[in-house]
Design brief:
This protein has about 475 residues and is an alpha/beta fold. It folds into 4 domains: about 130 residues, 3-Layer(aba) Sandwich (Rossmann fold), CATH 3.40.50.2300; about 160 residues, 3-Layer(aba) Sandwich (Rossmann fold), CATH 3.40.50; about 90 residues, Helicase, Ruva Protein, domain 3 (Orthogonal Bundle), CATH 1.10.8; about 60 residues, Orthogonal Bundle (Arc Repressor Mutant, subunit A). The protein has 19 helices and 16 strands. The chain has a 5-stranded parallel beta sheet, with helices on both faces. Helix 2 packs parallel to helix 3, helix 13 crosses helix 15 and helix 18 packs across helix 19. The longest helix is centred in the first third of the chain and has 30 residues. The radius of gyration is 29 Å and the shape is elongated. The chain binds adenosine-5'-triphosphate (ATP). The site of adenosine-5'-triphosphate (ATP) has 21 residues, from helix 7, helix 15 and helix 18. Adenosine-5'-triphosphate binds next to helix 7, helix 15 and helix 18. Keywords: ATP-binding, DNA-binding, Nucleotide-binding, Phosphoprotein, Transcription, Transcription regulation. It comes from Stieleria varia. Pfam families: AAA_lid_14, HTH_8, Response_reg, Sigma54_activat.
Length: about 475
Amino acid sequence: MTENPIKMLLVEDEDDFRESCARWMRRKGHDVSTAASGAEALGLCEEESFEVAVFDMNMPGMSGMELLQRVHQDKIEMEVIILTGQGTIETAVSAMKLGACDFLSKPCSLGDLEHHCELARDRGKLRRENKQLKEIISRSKPALEMVGESPVMKHVIKVVQKVAPTDKPVLIQGESGTGKEVVARAIQQNSAMADKPFVTINCAALPEQLVESELFGHQKGAFTGATSDKPGLFEIADGGTLFIDEVGELPLSLQPKLLRVLEDGSMRRIGSHKERTVKVRLIAATNRDLSDEVAAGNFREDLFYRINVLSLQLPPLREREGDIDRLIDHYLPVPWHIDDAARDAMNRYSWPGNIRQLINVIQRATILADGNDVTLDDLPSEIANCTDVPSDRSNDQDVSANGSAHQAAPLPPSLKLDDVAKTHVLYVLDKENGNKAKAARVLGIHRRKLYRLLERFAGNECKEESVSAVE
Ligand SMILES: Nc1ncnc2c1ncn2[C@@H]1O[C@H](COP(=O)(O)OP(=O)(O)OP(=O)(O)O)[C@@H](O)[C@H]1O
């Protein structure tokens, strides 16, 4: 009995030959399905996936070659061996061109058939792994250095080291730009799955309809535009880690499907009846309070408990004592310097966009500065003119809405609230290079609310324009 059974499909119209091959392969421990025609074989391929298929070339109705063509067209993934009574070089070449991986002439010994099937299975496995690696390389970035020696960050690093070796789901919560993805990668790098896929998806960055197809894949024809079968990220991450960013944005309608795959690893591509099993460690992140979302009915309670087995709260940058200086030194390229006044201003500022914002400010400063010295003049005015006292030195300060110790300079009373909001929203959008999902996260509002605000601002502008035109 083999220790490594092949899941295979044998398509042969001659009943005796088909059944004797199948019996022999089953006795060897392989998982064999049989079909007496091409049409029957295609039906089976819709229900199940196979590692290897053996097609007889000469069958009434659909020939082995036509069947191979259909498999190729429908992008059914399996290794195909063609079996023929008249093994000519030309037929072999045509079959290979159509994607067959091997060719066997009848009569062949059953031992030969098994050997060729094993080779095909191994080749298919390598091909899939190769494809998977390419996907992962194109999606993933190298592990990033976690800068931070503040007591709160030392605590975070300790928790990361504790949770990483388990294969349990982890929920990372924290404001936008605090490094949730960096921490997710650190967890994966310190886990037993470090050399396995790390695949990411950001639910806020994708339209609702696309999230399901990205996560679970789809079958050809499942919806307009589904021109071929596509594996989902759960399949791509199989054996490794899936990082779902902004999990709070996951449409309510999709949440049962996520719960199911987390519970028993089973899932189906959109439009497919075929049940697939995956083993994936989930790391989810959110900049919202998910328990509030549960209370508001936007997030299923059972899913919340499922993903919140281990949780980690990332502190905002303003609460990381001493880390602003470390991050400035880390991100300021050699041979740049920053003067004390600029450094102090950066230490006073409350960084609503956290580390991401700090990196942008440094990049901007190195573009604007003369020579290699960053001064106050090279910082955005809200930082250069910031009069805040850093949170660690301001226990008796007022606490602003975003939790920072904040004493904002009063604005001229003549300003309308809408104008202030518009200026701030457009400023953040500009900072995020027009990326609305990111801007919404920095602003702490839902993406759809940002769209509504932008529409309103655009509407106001139109009204203003038409008013001045009338005037
Ligand atoms: N501890 C850290 N040390 C150095 N760089 C960091 C650290 N944490 C985050 N960064 C950098 O800050 C930027 C934002 O980090 P990241 O994308 O992980 O944040 P996030 O919390 O996932 O943001 P969002 O909620 O917007 O998705 C990245 O460029 C990342 O490399």
